[in-house]
Amino acid sequence: MAVSWSARQKILLLLLTGLTLGLTRSPRHYFKILKNVPKAWREIDRKALYRAVREFKKERLADIMERKDGTLEMILTEKGRKRALKYKLDEIKIKRPAKWDGKWRIVIFDIPEKMKRAREVLREKLRELGFKELQKSVFIYPFECKDEIDFITEFFNLRFCIRLIRSDFITNEAELKLWFKLS
Prior knowledge:
Elements: H1 5-16, E1 21-23, H2 27-35, H3 39-42, H4 46-58, E2 62-66, E3 72-76, H5 78-91, E4 104-109, H6 116-129, E5 132-135, E6 138-141, H7 146-155, E7 162-167, H8 173-179
Antiparallel strand pairs: 1-3, 2-3, 4-6, 4-7, 5-6
Helix pairs in contact: 1-5
């Protein structure tokens, strides 16, 4: 039986944070390890965790090394890191502050035709995050989103063709304020 998608996602995201997972079959070592791990690890079913470890190793998402004390150390491979980042991309949200600062965030991009799929996924992700499309390669948003845009551009390896502009003026501002429900 395979490990659920949400358990796999949680394990990969926890490993992505830099946490090293220690596993052991020895009860003495198990409680020592468990004492030092975040609550999120403790919430994962132990059998599911061991199945996930086997699956990750088989899929080459993680390397597993045995220590001298009998514990196992699980560390993400580059492939595992990319998979975890994809999960993080699926969860990304932009926080809406209580008050708008009066600035517009404009994302412009010129992505080569050979990267057409990345361009389409980027457009879809921007729409999903609440951006308004002004033109095919120009999107606008009223709230701070630099960190989120940086993450997306790094994830898709598009740093060279995406720009983020902060502006205090744009024509048709009244229409945009209505669209974003700003006062």
